[in-house]
Amino acid sequence: MGMVMYLRRASPSNIAALRRDPSEAQEFAFEDGDVEADLIDFDKAWHALHFMLTGAAYDSHSPLGIIADIGEAVGQDVEGLDEFWIISPEQMGAFDTAFRQIDDAALRGRYDIAAMLESDIYLADAFADDGDELALEYILQGVPALRRLSAACAAAGDGAVRILA
Fold this sequence. Notes:
The protein is an alpha+beta fold. It is 48% helix and 16% strand. α8 packs across α9.
């Protein structure tokens, strides 16, 4: 078992409802929807992807930091295992603007296993053992869905809920 990260699209009304009643976060996060459009599963690659986007382990203070920067917490599940954070529509819009400036080749070029190991990035030791190409394939698997979700959120004025499970 390990830490996996999800990003779930959330309208302003969804976000307002979660702020009023954080106990609904788990149900909202995993409710039915268009998986391709509404929910991204980064699996255990989330921290490495965040590092590649921001150059920081946490608290990057970058618009690209939506995956692991500290944000507005909306609670935990009833067992205290899953944690939920709100990413506002404004944050998603800023992320989308910044993310569109980085093409896939540039993102791949940001892979630096030595820096990841030095920054204690989650699973960096496993990525070092896997070799660059295999590690990059795993880390970047969620990028196409993230590009779609980011663009859709920005166009609709939506935010997201980040889930660490």
